[in-house]
Design a protein that fits this description.
single chain, mainly alpha, globular, Golgi apparatus membrane protein TVP23 homolog, transmembrane helix, TVP23-like, transmembrane
């Protein structure tokens, strides 16, 4: 079950009380969060790519990559999403034992405090890095490095989970992804039908 919260007073987001400082959109207001948003995910990719050069011990490399991926997952989910784009998501279990996904976005009147540069850093890092892990899964299978398969699948799952969660946060208050896809397809079909009727 999904719960969408758009304007929650119970859980204020970080930086919402900073309305007096309306900085230009191109300024990076949270350099530390921006750095660590990219640091852990890029480090995990680099360790995976350069592991054979620095260490021949598989367990050391695997543990290092998993620790970096875990730090990345926690940082993106709990810190950089809130600070850089004003979004957050989490899972909570109610008294009946049912799991509920909660997606929340910063209040609309505070969106002018969001930096465009930070938003670009956030979404670029969030979208590009899972693409690398998809390529690593295929290259691991093709090169028959089966021992690395668990590591690259974990990288893909952790980074895909954050990407999915934040995409749901971004569009969640308006509609679900399934209804967005249906709306898009119906608009495309309608456009094609209109073109055909104009041409005949």
């Amino acid at each position: 079950m999904f719960l969408f919260v758009q304007d929650s007073q119970d859980a204020p987001l970080f930086g919402e009380d900073d309305e007096n400082t309306k900085l230009r959109k191109s300024i990076i207001r949270h350099p530390l969060a921006s750095f660590f948003h990219l640091f852990f995910r890029i480090s995990a990719i680099l360790v995976y790519l350069l592991c054979d050069i620095f260490s021949s011990r598989f367990i050391v490399c695997m543990v290092t990559i998993i620790l970096l991926l875990s730090c990345d997952f926690w940082t993106v989910k709990n810190v950089s999403g809130r600070l850089l784009v004003g979004l957050r998501w989490w899972n909570q279990v109610d008294e009946d034992g049912k799991s509920h996904w909660v997606f929340e976005s910063r209040k609309t009147h505070n969106l002018n405090t969001t930096s465009g540069a930070e938003s670009q850093i956030f979404w670029l890092g969030l979208i590009v890095c899972p693409i690398f892990w998809i390529m690593f899964v295929f290259s691991t299978i093709v090169s028959l490095k089966i021992k690395w398969l668990a590591v690259v699948i974990m990288g893909l799952v952790l980074q895909w989970a954050n990407l999915y969660g934040y995409v749901r946060c971004k569009v969640g208050g308006k509609s679900s992804l399934k209804s967005m896809a249906k709306n898009y397809l119906s608009v495309q079909i309608l456009k094609r039908a209109m073109k055909k009727t104009e041409g005949s």
